[in-house]
Design brief:
32% helix; globular
């Protein structure tokens, strides 16, 4: 008998639509205050969406309004700028 494989959660990047391990993606959350922020823990409450750790995916998601659609909330200029800043520092 072969050993049982452990389940690894899979998520889809909202920009490139690639399915990857949850650990390989960054989660973005719409909070109860209608703010859109990066969830570094992956456990924050609120509606979430996932993005690859690639600059191209972040650019595409921000430029085309994909984040707002995925989170069902308008992406404010302030939130968009905070996400761009985060992406430039981390990626």
């Amino acid at each position: 008998m072969s050993p049982k494989k452990k389940h690894r959660p899979q998520r889809t990047c909202i920009a490139c639509r690639e399915v990857k391990d949850k650990q390989a993606l960054l989660r973005i959350v719409r909070t109860s205050e209608q703010r859109i922020v990066v969830d570094e823990t992956g456990k924050a409450q609120g509606r979430g969406a996932y993005l690859c750790k690639q600059v191209a995916c972040w650019q595409k998601a921000l430029d085309r309004g994909i984040i707002g659609r995925a989170l069902k909330a308008p992406l404010t200029d302030q939130d968009a700028e905070a996400l761009r800043q985060y992406a430039s520092e981390i990626l």
